[in-house]
Specification:
The chain is of the alpha/beta class. The chain contains 14 helices and 13 strands. The strands form two sheets. Strands 3-2-1-4-5-6-7 form a seven-stranded parallel β-sheet, sandwiched between helices. Strands 10-9-8-11-12-13 form a six-stranded parallel β-sheet, with helices on both faces. 49% of the residues are buried.
């Protein structure tokens, strides 16, 4: 695509959430900087290093104490409490992020790009005339009544009559979701002299100018009630060259004969879920070589076939292993698809159940419950190690992801072209 002539001199990229939410937006910020815009990433202070090796500036989006309280806790990672816990932080970041935008940027020379719940950008768009592109990293962020996504706590069966699916979705938004998001957004709108909003998740969070889907169409074809301004961009890639693996990881990968498997519940999760220990024990009993990527320093199985690290660059690690067991986060799933490897998914909250459902229906993943028993794990092992059919399915998906190119580059183009 040819880069359009941009009226903007500066760009502000707003991202809230965990590292998996911020890293793709940091990649978009880097692509905007490559196009000559003075670009700043506004995100939780914890992720300032994501801007370190690029030409982008970094400033905190604020509410860092609330961020630590929420994302280092356990409620945010549960199906029951995840929505309310996360919006306690998103609401605080909305206020501090909006104040930061008003202090540092003006609508006449600055374009905005924002993650789904960085709604300070939506306020700046409504109240101050900024041009904004909303970036949705996963399909479940489109709250569709026509084709409801899989939700963490309870989902509407896709085989139910259409009128019933639409009615139940409308009720869920009105009585369960709008009260949570509205408790944060509507009081601030009132302070700004703006009318209160309804259907915040299904309508208001999307920019009316431009919405970028940071995933491919083949993963999630649009329903008829998805945003009219939506455009598929594909999965974003990490900015710059692949980061090298540590010497410890390199040495581990060179040793042993069993399949190498990565296990992670997400590097933002501070306390290890019980399923990690059960899966690791099963894999070690099958003579696999296991790399657990986690923050939690609590004891795990003692074995020379087990390596524990707090971080590893997945763009470099996953192409070197046989499969990955993870929580169903879209960033990890995208890297696994790009590497052409199988996935076991153990989804619990947020977008994870919907991601898992879509990947399993395409034959690209095997979904497990948190309490999966040995018989189920055995079937998952057989699925991951079966012959040429599984390999051909994974290879076809890998080719499609590689052909799609870099979603971050595409989003940067869309943002510059937005009016």
């Amino acid at each position: 695509m040819n880069t359009p002539v941009s009226p903007f001199r500066r760009a502000a990229v707003l991202a809230v959430g965990s590292a998996g939410d911020v890293a793709p937006l940091a990649a978009v910020a880097a692509r905007l900087a490559e196009r000559g815009l003075q670009t700043t990433l506004l995100a939780p202070q914890r992720y300032a290093s994501l801007a370190g090796a690029t030409d982008i500036a970094f400033t905190t989006i604020g509410a860092d104490d609330t961020f630590a309280d929420v994302f280092d806790g356990t409620d945010v990672w549960t199906a029951r409490h995840g929505l309310a816990a996360s919006w306690r932080y998103y609401g605080a970041a909305m206020r501090s992020g909006y104040a930061a935008l008003r202090r540092g940027w003006t609508s006449d020379d600055t374009v905005l790009v924002s993650s789904s719940f960085a709604v300070a950008a939506r306020l700046a768009e409504e109240c101050d005339g900024f041009v904004n592109t909303t970036v949705h990293l996963s399909p479940s962020l489109m709250f569709s009544r026509v084709r409801p996504p899989r939700w963490p706590a309870r989902s509407i069966p896709p085989g139910w009559p259409q009128w019933l699916q639409e009615g139940l979705s409308a009720a869920a938004e009105r009585w369960a979701i709008d009260p949570v998001i509205g408790a944060q957004v509507n009081p601030f709108l009132a302070e700004l002299g703006r009318p209160r909003r309804r259907r915040l998740f299904s309508q208001w969070i999307h920019s009316p100018r431009r919405v970028a889907y940071a995933f491919p169409q083949w993963l999630a074809p649009a329903a008829s009630d998805w945003p009219a301004a939506g455009i598929y961009a594909g999965f974003p890639r990490h900015s710059g060259a692949p980061r090298p693996l540590s010497g410890e990881v390199e040495a581990f990968l060179r040793e042993g004969a069993g399949p190498a498997v990565v296990v992670t519940a997400g590097t933002a999760v501070a306390t290890r879920p019980a399923w990690v220990g059960r899966v690791v024990a099963f894999l070690l009993a099958r003579d696999a070589r296991v790399i657990v990527v986690e923050k939690d320093g609590a004891p795990l199985a003692a074995s020379t076939s087990l390596l524990r690290v707090p971080f590893a660059p997945f763009e470099s690690l996953l192409p070197r292993v046989h499969w990955v067991v993870h929580h169903g986060g879209i960033g990890t799933a995208a890297e696994a698809l790009r590497a052409g490897i199988a996935q076991w998914l153990v989804p619990t909250s947020h977008d994870q159940p919907d991601n898992a459902d879509r990947l399993q229906r395409l034959g690209l993943a095997y979904t497990l419950t948190r309490d999966a028993e040995p018989q189920t794990l055995t079937r998952a092992w057989q699925w991951a190690t079966e012959g040429t059919l599984r390999a051909s399915i994974l290879n076809a998906a890998q080719c499609r992801v590689l052909e799609d190119g870099d979603g971050a580059d595409r989003i940067a183009e869309l943002a510059i072209a937005a009016r």
